[in-house]
């Protein structure tokens, strides 16, 4: 595991605020959801917008900024909720080993590069598996199931 973390900018905070507001209002942007996870220290619900991804019938959450607070909280809790409007779906999460990440990261970049591509330092959906495997430790991925 790497300690890679990209701090959100002011523009990121504004964008996430808008996406979160729309998703909480029941109008998700391109399939976004609000992730709710209990804080590992406080036990309070913490929320952030995320981009769930489906690959070969499985669902995933990818952390494009690395070791974020939501990643640390989800590791500790092992469960959370995906919210859209008034609906909340409870799930359990299992972290994906680095060796399994390349096809997930490729699919994530195909779906969401317009929003998160800048966090991948020149790696894109067309990058070879070897390059995706090389960066995999910096991008936590969770398989989620209801």
UniProtKB/TrEMBL annotation:
GO MF terms, alphabetically ordered: oxidoreductase activity
Coiled coil feature spans: none
Gene3D superfamilies recorded: Electron Transport, Fmn-binding Protein, Chain A (2.30.110.10)
Pfam families per record: F420H2_quin_red (PF04075)
InterPro entries reported in the protein's UniProt record: F420H2_quin_Rdtase, Split_barrel_FMN-bd
Highest taxon, organism lineage: Bacteria
NCBIfam families: hi_GC_TIGR00026
Name by which UniProt lists this protein: Nitroreductase family deazaflavin-dependent oxidoreductase
Source taxonomy: Bacteria, Bacillati, Actinomycetota, Actinomycetes, Micrococcales
